[in-house]
Amino acid sequence: MKISEDSVKTYCGYVAIVGRPNVGKSTLLNHLLKQKISITSRKPQTTRHRILGIETEGQHQCVFVDTPGFNSGENKALNRIMNETVLSVIADVDLVLFVVDRLSFNRGDVQVLDLLKKSKVPIILAINKIDLVKTKNDFLPHIQRLSSLFQFAEIVPISASTGYNLDLITRLTTNFLPESPFLFPTDQITDRSSRFLAAELIREKITRQLGDEIPYEVSVEIENFQDNEKIITIGGLILVDKPGQKKIIVGKGGGRLKRIGSVAREEMETIFGKKIMLRLWVKVKGGWADDQRALQSLGFFD
Of the residues 119, 147, 175, which one is the last residue of a structural domain? Predict the structure, then answer.
């Protein structure tokens, strides 16, 4: 007897990836999806927006939510918005992946855990960058200490960069998905537009190339995005806080801006599968990171 597709049970739910800044949340999401949708760098607070990554396999659809690193520092509007994003996500998911860094569990991790304790959803503790741990004998006592802090659903050592134990993370997350129709088409991998991804890729290249020369108060706005049959034409506006930052990004004779554009264009061509024509400009807009109206125009309230 042939079974109707309508009679096949499907499971779908939201899984939040949370943690303090720079523990590898976005790298984890990209490797779980086997495709890059979230930008990464060694600089804290690279991720600013809530980004969905959708993994559909058989009867299971897992909607991962990559969140900004929870920050207890400066009280700028940008920081407040990113923290509010984390709080709103935690309140409305089926499972949390709490990512921490190796043998460290500092004040920032404690603050995140205190928030998670209020969520009343299962929490899997993912101890990331395990490939960088040199003193393996310290690892078991560290896990024992962490398990005494909270009754985690699971504690899993992983390496988001090498893929170690990510298959286990995938199996565990699907076990927590409620029975539900799929929320997205099976071929969809993110809720974000190509325009958004282009802006994020440009910002990633700025962050990676300039390191500590530029504070994180830099943003990118896509002013023009024309997707034709064989080529995508993109115009990107880079916003900085001070004139000196503009000079650093542009570089001598415009050389650094050209390098940023070149590496961003190459990665866009790989991701979008088309030739990219990319033009970049830099503009000084003082105090944009603490300007509610400017943040709204840059999509921080989406």
Answer: 175
Could you give the CA distance from residue 4 to residue 256 in angstroms, rounded to a whole number? Answer: 58
Encode 114-166 in three state secondary structure. Answer: HHHCCCCCCEEEEEECHHHCCCHHHHHHHHHHHHCCCCCCEEEECECCCCECH
Is 128 inside a domain boundary? yes
239 in any annotated domain: yes
Could you give the CA distance from residue 15 to residue 13 in angstroms, rounded to a whole number? 7
CA distance 133 to 286: 42
Q: Which residues fall within 8 angstroms of residue 259, CB to CB, at 6 or more apart?
A: 209, 251
Between strands 60-66 and 11-18, the pairing is parallel
Structural domain count of the chain: 2
Please, are residues 36 and 271 in contact by the beta-carbon 8 Å criterion? yes
pLDDT tens-digit map of 229-276: 889 999 999 988 888 888 989 999 999 999 999 999 998 998 888 999
The order of strands in the sheet holding 275-284 is 218-227, 231-240, 275-284
Helix (H) and strand (E) counts in the chain: 9, 9
